[in-house]
Amino acid sequence: DKAGVPVVPGYHGEAQEIVLLASKAREIGYPVLIKARAGGGGKGMRRVEHPDEFSEALSSARREAKAAFGDDRVLVEKYVDKPRHIEVQVFGDNLGNVVHLYERDCSAQRRHQKVIEESPAPGMTPALRKAMTEAAVKAAKAINYSGAGTIEFIVDASQGLKADRFWFMEMNTRLQVEHPVTEMVTGTDLVEWQLRVASGEKLPKTQSEIALVGHAFEARIYAEDAAKGFLPATGTLHHLKFPDAAPQGATMRIETGVRAGDAISPYYDPMIAKLVVHATDRQAALEALGAVLSRTEVAGSTVNTAFLAALAADPDFAAGDVDTSLIARHQTALIEV
User: Within this chain, do residues 197 and 224 fall inside the same structural domain, yes or no?
Assistant: First the structure.
Protein backbone atom coordinates (compact mmCIF):
# COMPACT_ATOMS: atom_id res chain seq x y z
CA ASP A 1 0.00 0.00 0.00
CA LYS A 2 2.85 2.38 0.86
CA ALA A 3 4.38 1.66 -2.56
CA GLY A 4 1.22 2.84 -4.29
CA VAL A 5 0.13 -0.66 -5.29
CA PRO A 6 -3.63 -1.31 -4.88
CA VAL A 7 -4.47 -3.91 -2.23
CA VAL A 8 -7.69 -5.78 -1.52
CA PRO A 9 -9.74 -4.19 1.29
CA GLY A 10 -9.01 -6.21 4.41
CA TYR A 11 -7.08 -6.71 7.63
CA HIS A 12 -3.32 -7.29 7.35
CA GLY A 13 -2.25 -6.48 10.90
CA GLU A 14 -0.10 -8.33 13.43
CA ALA A 15 -2.75 -8.89 16.11
CA GLN A 16 -4.37 -12.30 15.62
CA GLU A 17 -6.96 -12.65 18.39
CA ILE A 18 -10.08 -14.39 17.12
CA VAL A 19 -12.38 -11.67 18.50
CA LEU A 20 -10.42 -9.01 16.61
CA LEU A 21 -10.34 -11.00 13.37
CA ALA A 22 -14.07 -11.70 13.55
CA SER A 23 -14.71 -8.01 14.15
CA LYS A 24 -12.57 -7.06 11.15
CA ALA A 25 -14.48 -9.57 9.01
CA ARG A 26 -17.75 -7.87 9.94
CA GLU A 27 -16.28 -4.47 9.10
CA ILE A 28 -15.04 -5.69 5.71
CA GLY A 29 -18.38 -7.32 4.92
CA TYR A 30 -19.12 -10.93 4.02
CA PRO A 31 -18.16 -12.94 2.10
CA VAL A 32 -14.53 -12.73 3.21
CA LEU A 33 -11.42 -14.75 2.47
CA ILE A 34 -9.09 -15.99 5.22
CA LYS A 35 -5.55 -16.40 3.87
CA ALA A 36 -2.29 -17.67 5.34
CA ARG A 37 0.21 -14.82 5.66
CA ALA A 38 3.25 -17.00 5.06
CA GLY A 39 2.38 -18.90 1.91
CA GLY A 40 0.26 -19.57 -1.14
CA GLY A 41 -0.90 -22.41 -3.36
CA GLY A 42 -4.34 -22.35 -1.78
CA LYS A 43 -3.07 -23.70 1.54
CA GLY A 44 -4.50 -22.01 4.62
CA MET A 45 -7.22 -20.34 2.56
CA ARG A 46 -10.94 -20.39 3.38
CA ARG A 47 -13.92 -18.52 1.92
CA VAL A 48 -16.43 -17.55 4.62
CA GLU A 49 -19.99 -16.64 3.67
CA HIS A 50 -21.52 -15.94 7.10
CA PRO A 51 -20.32 -14.80 10.55
CA ASP A 52 -21.46 -18.10 12.10
CA GLU A 53 -18.89 -19.93 9.94
CA PHE A 54 -15.94 -17.68 10.77
CA SER A 55 -14.59 -19.37 13.90
CA GLU A 56 -14.48 -22.86 12.39
CA ALA A 57 -13.02 -21.61 9.11
CA LEU A 58 -10.34 -19.66 10.97
CA SER A 59 -9.31 -22.70 13.03
CA SER A 60 -9.12 -24.84 9.90
CA ALA A 61 -7.09 -22.25 7.97
CA ARG A 62 -4.68 -21.82 10.87
CA ARG A 63 -4.08 -25.56 11.22
CA GLU A 64 -3.37 -25.91 7.52
CA ALA A 65 -1.13 -22.83 7.45
CA LYS A 66 0.85 -24.05 10.47
CA ALA A 67 1.37 -27.48 8.91
CA ALA A 68 2.36 -26.07 5.52
CA PHE A 69 4.41 -23.02 6.45
CA GLY A 70 5.15 -23.24 10.18
CA ASP A 71 3.20 -20.00 10.66
CA ASP A 72 -0.50 -19.84 11.54
CA ARG A 73 -0.96 -16.08 11.12
CA VAL A 74 -3.66 -15.05 8.66
CA LEU A 75 -5.05 -12.14 6.66
CA VAL A 76 -8.75 -11.41 6.28
CA GLU A 77 -9.77 -9.87 2.96
CA LYS A 78 -12.90 -9.02 1.03
CA TYR A 79 -13.90 -11.85 -1.32
CA VAL A 80 -13.99 -10.60 -4.92
CA ASP A 81 -16.87 -11.74 -7.14
CA LYS A 82 -15.89 -13.44 -10.42
CA PRO A 83 -12.19 -13.16 -9.60
CA ARG A 84 -9.49 -13.65 -12.18
CA HIS A 85 -5.91 -14.45 -11.25
CA ILE A 86 -3.63 -12.36 -13.45
CA GLU A 87 0.04 -12.07 -12.60
CA VAL A 88 2.94 -10.03 -13.96
CA GLN A 89 6.44 -11.39 -14.48
CA VAL A 90 9.04 -8.92 -13.24
CA PHE A 91 12.82 -9.05 -13.30
CA GLY A 92 15.32 -6.88 -11.47
CA ASP A 93 19.10 -6.61 -11.41
CA ASN A 94 21.56 -5.39 -8.79
CA LEU A 95 21.88 -2.00 -10.49
CA GLY A 96 18.35 -0.85 -9.69
CA ASN A 97 16.77 -1.79 -13.02
CA VAL A 98 13.38 -3.54 -13.07
CA VAL A 99 11.36 -4.60 -16.12
CA HIS A 100 8.15 -6.53 -16.66
CA LEU A 101 7.62 -9.31 -19.19
CA TYR A 102 3.86 -8.85 -19.48
CA GLU A 103 1.13 -10.87 -17.83
CA ARG A 104 -0.05 -14.45 -17.38
CA ASP A 105 -3.63 -15.49 -16.73
CA CYS A 106 -3.77 -18.32 -14.20
CA SER A 107 -7.50 -18.30 -13.49
CA ALA A 108 -8.04 -21.95 -14.49
CA GLN A 109 -7.64 -23.47 -11.02
CA ARG A 110 -8.87 -26.37 -8.96
CA ARG A 111 -8.53 -26.29 -5.17
CA HIS A 112 -6.91 -22.84 -5.53
CA GLN A 113 -4.07 -24.35 -7.59
CA LYS A 114 -3.33 -23.62 -11.24
CA VAL A 115 -3.79 -26.22 -13.99
CA ILE A 116 -3.68 -24.21 -17.24
CA GLU A 117 -1.90 -20.89 -17.61
CA GLU A 118 -1.69 -18.59 -20.60
CA SER A 119 -0.16 -15.39 -21.90
CA PRO A 120 -1.39 -12.87 -22.79
CA ALA A 121 -4.53 -12.77 -20.62
CA PRO A 122 -7.68 -13.09 -22.75
CA GLY A 123 -9.63 -9.86 -22.97
CA MET A 124 -6.76 -7.80 -21.58
CA THR A 125 -7.18 -4.10 -22.32
CA PRO A 126 -4.32 -1.67 -22.94
CA ALA A 127 -5.44 0.41 -19.96
CA LEU A 128 -5.46 -2.51 -17.53
CA ARG A 129 -2.16 -3.89 -18.83
CA LYS A 130 -0.52 -0.49 -18.37
CA ALA A 131 -1.90 -0.12 -14.84
CA MET A 132 -0.98 -3.66 -13.78
CA THR A 133 2.53 -3.71 -15.21
CA GLU A 134 3.29 -0.28 -13.76
CA ALA A 135 2.04 -1.43 -10.34
CA ALA A 136 4.13 -4.61 -10.56
CA VAL A 137 7.32 -2.74 -11.43
CA LYS A 138 6.58 -0.21 -8.69
CA ALA A 139 6.20 -3.02 -6.13
CA ALA A 140 9.49 -4.62 -7.16
CA LYS A 141 11.37 -1.33 -7.07
CA ALA A 142 9.97 -0.52 -3.62
CA ILE A 143 11.91 -3.46 -2.17
CA ASN A 144 14.99 -3.16 -4.45
CA TYR A 145 14.12 -6.54 -5.91
CA SER A 146 16.72 -8.52 -7.84
CA GLY A 147 16.09 -11.65 -9.92
CA ALA A 148 12.91 -13.24 -11.22
CA GLY A 149 9.68 -12.47 -9.39
CA THR A 150 5.97 -12.64 -9.97
CA ILE A 151 3.45 -10.09 -8.74
CA GLU A 152 0.06 -11.78 -8.47
CA PHE A 153 -3.12 -9.71 -8.74
CA ILE A 154 -6.76 -10.54 -8.22
CA VAL A 155 -9.01 -8.90 -10.81
CA ASP A 156 -12.74 -8.28 -10.53
CA ALA A 157 -14.06 -9.48 -13.90
CA SER A 158 -17.74 -9.15 -13.04
CA GLN A 159 -18.06 -6.12 -15.34
CA GLY A 160 -15.20 -6.79 -17.74
CA LEU A 161 -11.54 -5.97 -17.21
CA LYS A 162 -11.18 -2.44 -15.88
CA ALA A 163 -8.04 -0.57 -14.90
CA ASP A 164 -9.36 0.29 -11.42
CA ARG A 165 -10.59 -3.20 -10.47
CA PHE A 166 -7.40 -5.11 -9.64
CA TRP A 167 -5.57 -5.60 -6.36
CA PHE A 168 -2.26 -7.00 -5.17
CA MET A 169 -2.52 -10.57 -3.91
CA GLU A 170 1.04 -11.75 -3.27
CA MET A 171 4.57 -11.81 -4.65
CA ASN A 172 6.39 -15.02 -5.45
CA THR A 173 10.11 -14.40 -5.12
CA ARG A 174 11.21 -17.16 -7.45
CA LEU A 175 10.85 -18.48 -10.97
CA GLN A 176 7.25 -19.68 -11.30
CA VAL A 177 6.13 -23.09 -12.52
CA GLU A 178 4.38 -21.30 -15.38
CA HIS A 179 7.35 -19.20 -16.51
CA PRO A 180 7.63 -21.07 -19.86
CA VAL A 181 4.57 -19.28 -21.26
CA THR A 182 6.32 -15.97 -20.65
CA GLU A 183 9.48 -17.26 -22.29
CA MET A 184 7.44 -18.37 -25.31
CA VAL A 185 5.68 -15.05 -25.90
CA THR A 186 8.72 -12.85 -25.22
CA GLY A 187 11.47 -15.00 -26.73
CA THR A 188 13.52 -14.91 -23.54
CA ASP A 189 15.32 -17.46 -21.38
CA LEU A 190 14.56 -16.45 -17.80
CA VAL A 191 16.96 -18.99 -16.31
CA GLU A 192 19.76 -17.42 -18.34
CA TRP A 193 18.64 -14.02 -17.07
CA GLN A 194 18.85 -15.30 -13.49
CA LEU A 195 22.41 -16.48 -14.01
CA ARG A 196 23.48 -13.23 -15.65
CA VAL A 197 21.95 -11.09 -12.91
CA ALA A 198 23.44 -13.32 -10.20
CA SER A 199 26.88 -12.80 -11.74
CA GLY A 200 26.48 -9.02 -11.50
CA GLU A 201 25.41 -8.21 -15.05
CA LYS A 202 22.66 -5.75 -15.88
CA LEU A 203 19.36 -7.00 -17.31
CA PRO A 204 19.83 -8.43 -20.84
CA LYS A 205 17.02 -6.23 -22.23
CA THR A 206 15.46 -2.88 -21.52
CA GLN A 207 11.68 -2.53 -21.26
CA SER A 208 11.36 -1.17 -24.81
CA GLU A 209 13.18 -4.23 -26.16
CA ILE A 210 10.70 -6.73 -24.68
CA ALA A 211 7.85 -7.49 -27.08
CA LEU A 212 4.78 -9.69 -26.69
CA VAL A 213 4.43 -12.04 -29.68
CA GLY A 214 1.70 -14.64 -30.22
CA HIS A 215 -0.05 -16.67 -27.55
CA ALA A 216 1.10 -19.50 -25.27
CA PHE A 217 -0.55 -22.05 -23.00
CA GLU A 218 0.88 -24.34 -20.33
CA ALA A 219 -1.03 -27.39 -19.08
CA ARG A 220 0.11 -29.17 -15.92
CA ILE A 221 -0.19 -32.94 -16.06
CA TYR A 222 -0.83 -34.28 -12.57
CA ALA A 223 -1.12 -37.80 -11.22
CA GLU A 224 -4.57 -37.22 -9.77
CA ASP A 225 -8.14 -38.42 -10.09
CA ALA A 226 -10.42 -35.60 -11.23
CA ALA A 227 -13.50 -37.74 -10.55
CA LYS A 228 -12.51 -38.05 -6.89
CA GLY A 229 -12.07 -34.36 -6.19
CA PHE A 230 -8.60 -34.26 -7.79
CA LEU A 231 -7.26 -36.71 -5.23
CA PRO A 232 -3.52 -37.29 -5.79
CA ALA A 233 -2.76 -40.68 -7.33
CA THR A 234 0.20 -43.02 -6.99
CA GLY A 235 1.56 -45.90 -9.04
CA THR A 236 4.35 -46.80 -11.42
CA LEU A 237 4.55 -45.09 -14.80
CA HIS A 238 4.65 -48.17 -17.00
CA HIS A 239 4.28 -46.07 -20.15
CA LEU A 240 5.00 -42.38 -20.77
CA LYS A 241 5.12 -40.85 -24.24
CA PHE A 242 4.80 -37.27 -25.43
CA PRO A 243 4.27 -36.01 -29.00
CA ASP A 244 7.42 -35.39 -31.01
CA ALA A 245 6.19 -32.06 -32.31
CA ALA A 246 3.32 -29.60 -32.15
CA PRO A 247 0.82 -29.26 -35.00
CA GLN A 248 1.94 -27.24 -38.02
CA GLY A 249 2.16 -23.54 -37.26
CA ALA A 250 2.76 -24.05 -33.54
CA THR A 251 5.76 -24.79 -31.36
CA MET A 252 5.91 -26.96 -28.27
CA ARG A 253 8.10 -27.78 -25.30
CA ILE A 254 7.73 -30.51 -22.70
CA GLU A 255 9.16 -30.13 -19.21
CA THR A 256 9.22 -33.25 -17.10
CA GLY A 257 11.30 -34.86 -14.40
CA VAL A 258 10.04 -38.43 -14.70
CA ARG A 259 10.50 -41.38 -17.05
CA ALA A 260 8.70 -44.61 -17.80
CA GLY A 261 9.34 -46.94 -14.87
CA ASP A 262 9.40 -44.20 -12.25
CA ALA A 263 7.10 -44.47 -9.23
CA ILE A 264 4.75 -41.63 -8.25
CA SER A 265 5.19 -41.07 -4.52
CA PRO A 266 2.46 -39.80 -2.18
CA TYR A 267 5.07 -37.69 -0.38
CA TYR A 268 5.78 -35.19 -3.16
CA ASP A 269 3.86 -32.95 -5.54
CA PRO A 270 2.08 -35.19 -8.08
CA MET A 271 3.00 -33.13 -11.15
CA ILE A 272 4.34 -35.33 -13.95
CA ALA A 273 4.97 -32.81 -16.71
CA LYS A 274 4.17 -29.44 -18.21
CA LEU A 275 3.00 -29.20 -21.83
CA VAL A 276 3.66 -25.77 -23.32
CA VAL A 277 2.51 -24.61 -26.75
CA HIS A 278 2.87 -21.36 -28.69
CA ALA A 279 1.12 -20.11 -31.83
CA THR A 280 0.25 -16.89 -33.59
CA ASP A 281 -3.02 -16.31 -31.70
CA ARG A 282 -5.10 -17.75 -28.86
CA GLN A 283 -7.34 -19.91 -31.03
CA ALA A 284 -4.39 -21.53 -32.82
CA ALA A 285 -2.55 -22.06 -29.53
CA LEU A 286 -5.64 -23.60 -27.92
CA GLU A 287 -6.09 -26.00 -30.83
CA ALA A 288 -2.42 -26.97 -30.55
CA LEU A 289 -2.82 -27.57 -26.82
CA GLY A 290 -5.77 -29.88 -27.42
CA ALA A 291 -3.86 -31.80 -30.07
CA VAL A 292 -0.77 -32.23 -27.88
CA LEU A 293 -2.88 -33.40 -24.93
CA SER A 294 -4.71 -35.95 -27.09
CA ARG A 295 -1.39 -37.44 -28.22
CA THR A 296 0.12 -37.70 -24.74
CA GLU A 297 0.17 -41.27 -23.43
CA VAL A 298 0.45 -42.19 -19.75
CA ALA A 299 -0.21 -45.60 -18.20
CA GLY A 300 0.28 -46.91 -14.67
CA SER A 301 -1.24 -44.05 -12.72
CA THR A 302 -4.44 -42.04 -12.97
CA VAL A 303 -3.67 -38.68 -14.60
CA ASN A 304 -5.60 -35.55 -15.54
CA THR A 305 -4.91 -35.42 -19.30
CA ALA A 306 -8.54 -36.13 -20.27
CA PHE A 307 -9.70 -33.47 -17.82
CA LEU A 308 -7.24 -30.94 -19.26
CA ALA A 309 -8.40 -31.71 -22.80
CA ALA A 310 -12.02 -31.24 -21.73
CA LEU A 311 -11.15 -27.93 -20.08
CA ALA A 312 -9.34 -26.72 -23.20
CA ALA A 313 -12.47 -27.57 -25.22
CA ASP A 314 -14.92 -26.02 -22.75
CA PRO A 315 -16.94 -23.30 -24.56
CA ASP A 316 -16.44 -20.68 -21.84
CA PHE A 317 -12.72 -21.37 -21.54
CA ALA A 318 -12.34 -21.37 -25.32
CA ALA A 319 -14.08 -17.99 -25.44
CA GLY A 320 -11.75 -16.58 -22.79
CA ASP A 321 -14.62 -16.20 -20.31
CA VAL A 322 -12.67 -17.60 -17.39
CA ASP A 323 -12.47 -16.94 -13.67
CA THR A 324 -11.15 -18.90 -10.71
CA SER A 325 -14.51 -20.66 -10.19
CA LEU A 326 -14.87 -21.90 -13.77
CA ILE A 327 -13.65 -25.43 -13.05
CA ALA A 328 -15.84 -25.77 -9.95
CA ARG A 329 -18.92 -24.65 -11.90
CA HIS A 330 -18.25 -26.98 -14.84
CA GLN A 331 -16.63 -29.83 -12.92
CA THR A 332 -19.33 -32.44 -13.58
CA ALA A 333 -19.29 -31.84 -17.33
CA LEU A 334 -15.49 -31.73 -17.47
CA ILE A 335 -15.14 -35.04 -15.66
CA GLU A 336 -17.79 -36.85 -17.71
CA VAL A 337 -16.02 -36.18 -21.01
Answer: no
Spell out where 111-165 has E strands.
113-119, 147-156
The Cβ of residue 221 has, within 10 Å, a number of other Cβ atoms equal to 25
How many domains is the chain built from? Answer: 3
Q: What is the CATH number of the domain that holds 260?
A: 3.30.470.20
Range of the domain at 18: 10-78
pTM for the full predicted model: 0.86
Instruction: Return per-residue pLDDT of the chain as tens, 337 residues.
Output: 778 899 888 999 999 999 999 999 999 999 999 999 987 778 899 999 999 999 999 999 999 999 999 999 999 999 988 899 999 999 999 999 999 999 999 999 998 899 999 999 999 999 999 999 999 999 999 999 999 999 999 999 988 999 999 999 899 999 999 999 999 999 999 999 999 999 999 999 999 999 999 999 999 999 999 999 999 999 999 999 999 999 999 999 999 999 999 999 999 989 999 999 999 999 999 999 999 999 999 999 999 999 999 999 999 999 999 999 999 999 999 997 5
- Would you please indicate which residues are annotated as catalytic (active-site) residues? 174
Note whether residue 303 is domain-resident: yes
Q: Cβ–Cβ contacts within 10 Å for residue 5, how many?
A: 21
